[in-house]
Specification:
8 helices; TM2D1-3-like
């Protein structure tokens, strides 16, 4: 893969991933063949900041977890009203990291 394309991808999508994953992502993108590049370019990543806002506004209903794909946790939060509010408060600190991890999982699936 062309290093210039990889660097452009890294610059435009760095906010969607944890900083300690960036070196691994760059290495995997450089090894990847050109046939998978189009698929990687079309991936839609969830914005961690947007998920934080959703968590602040409707976290007690589990909407934030539904949006990132954690259906089971979303149902749990919905049925318990956000764990009586405690789970909702904890998720305010965890949702951005969980969103970045889900984005990483989506990108890894595209590699293989």
């Amino acid at each position: 893969m062309d290093a210039q394309k990889v660097d452009m991808f890294m610059m435009t999508n760095s906010k969607f991933f944890e900083s300690h994953h960036m070196a691994q992502i760059r290495e995997n993108l450089l090894k990847m063949d050109d046939s998978k590049w189009a698929m990687v370019q079309t991936l839609q990543f969830k914005d961690p900041t947007t998920m934080l806002i959703v968590s602040i506004l409707a976290g007690g209903l589990g909407i934030d977890r539904f949006m990132i794909g954690d259906t089971g946790l979303g149902i749990g939060k919905l049925l318990t009203c956000g764990g009586l509010g405690i789970w909702s408060i904890i998720d305010l600190f965890l949702i951005m990291g969980a969103t970045r991890e889900k984005n990483m999982e989506k990108l890894v699936q595209a590699f293989y």
